């Protein structure tokens, strides 16, 4: 069944069913696709960890998509969850309220703000146990979630749990993005994509494996084709 394209809200919180599912590439692809439609885009990462290993999701998003703004709320050295990384670094994490205020300011100067979470939806981002789900609640009706999922076996359960957590909190879900789509998909991948395509939540698109290794020009040109589910 052909589904209508999704018109994305001013603030899009990009979460994943787990770590390593392709949130950063999905955020960059969203930025490139939106900019191809003439929209101005900012990217914001509340908590960036792994700096000592050279990890910088904002730098990667800037390289691939060149949004008008790409910044992190706090940069942590250890490749750990934010609370643990901050404890090792001896750094006090910003409050969710501080992140929300910065996102609102970015939204005032851009058509869209893409907020990339850390790991999955319920990873704690501040000392009070606040999560990306809580940040979405603070941002209210201006915000919606894009859920990035693996295409492989097990993704239906992991994605279903994430979507259920969002629904129970009354948070808007804009759709699902499948990351790391293999060049030669098997029965599991094909079946999972078919299930998402006909499910109750819009399938915003499918990103090819190693998309980040493409030349930047090719990435930006192809991103709107990958994300055919957004208006």
From TrEMBL:
Pathway: Cofactor biosynthesis; biotin biosynthesis; biotin from 7,8-diaminononanoate: step 1/2. Its cofactor is Mg(2+). Substrate binds at residue 49. GO terms for biological process: biotin biosynthetic process. GO terms for cellular component: cytosol. Keywords: ATP-binding, Biotin biosynthesis, Cytoplasm, Ligase, Magnesium, Metal-binding, Nucleotide-binding. ATP binds at residues 20-25, 57, 116-119, 179-180. Its main location: cytoplasm. Gene3D superfamilies: P-loop containing nucleotide triphosphate hydrolases (3.40.50.300). The keyword Magnesium applies. Its EC number is 6.3.3.3. InterPro entries: DTB_synth_BioD (IPR004472), P-loop_NTPase (IPR027417). It comes from the Bacteria. The keyword Cytoplasm applies. Mg(2+) binds at residues 24, 57, 116. GO terms for molecular function: ATP binding; dethiobiotin synthase activity; magnesium ion binding. It catalyses: (7R,8S)-7,8-diammoniononanoate + CO2 + ATP = (4R,5S)-dethiobiotin + ADP + phosphate + 3 H(+). The active site is at 45. It is an enzyme of class 6 (ligase). It is found in: Cytoplasm. Homodimer. Belongs to the dethiobiotin synthetase family. This is ATP-dependent dethiobiotin synthetase BioD. It comes from Arthrobacter cupressi.
């Amino acid at each position: 069944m052909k589904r209508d394209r999704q018109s994305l809200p001013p603030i899009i919180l990009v979460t994943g069913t787990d770590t390593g599912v392709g949130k950063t590439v999905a955020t960059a692809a969203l930025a490139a696709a939106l900019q191809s439609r003439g929209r101005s885009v900012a990217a914001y990462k509340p908590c960036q960890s792994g700096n000592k290993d050279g990890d910088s999701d904002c730098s990667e998003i800037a390289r691939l998509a060149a949004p008008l703004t790409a910044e992190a709320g706090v940069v942590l050295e250890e490749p750990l969850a934010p609370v643990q990384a901050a404890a090792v670094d001896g750094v006090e994490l910003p409050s969710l309220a501080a992140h929300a205020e910065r996102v609102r300011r970015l939204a005032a100067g851009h058509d869209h703000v893409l907020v990339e979470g850390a790991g999955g939806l319920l990873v704690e981002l501040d000392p009070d146990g606040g999560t990306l789900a809580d940040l979405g609640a603070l941002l209210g009706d201006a915000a919606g979630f894009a859920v990035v999922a693996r295409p492989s076996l097990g993704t239906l359960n992991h994605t279903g749990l994430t979507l259920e957590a969002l629904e129970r909190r009354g948070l808007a879900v804009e759709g699902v993005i499948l990351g790391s789509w293999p060049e030669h998909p098997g029965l599991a991948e094909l079946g999972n994509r078919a299930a998402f395509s006909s499910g109750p939540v819009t399938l915003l698109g499918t990103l090819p494996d190693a998309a980040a290794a493409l030349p930047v020009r090719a990435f930006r040109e192809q991103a709107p084709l990958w994300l055919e589910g957004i208006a």
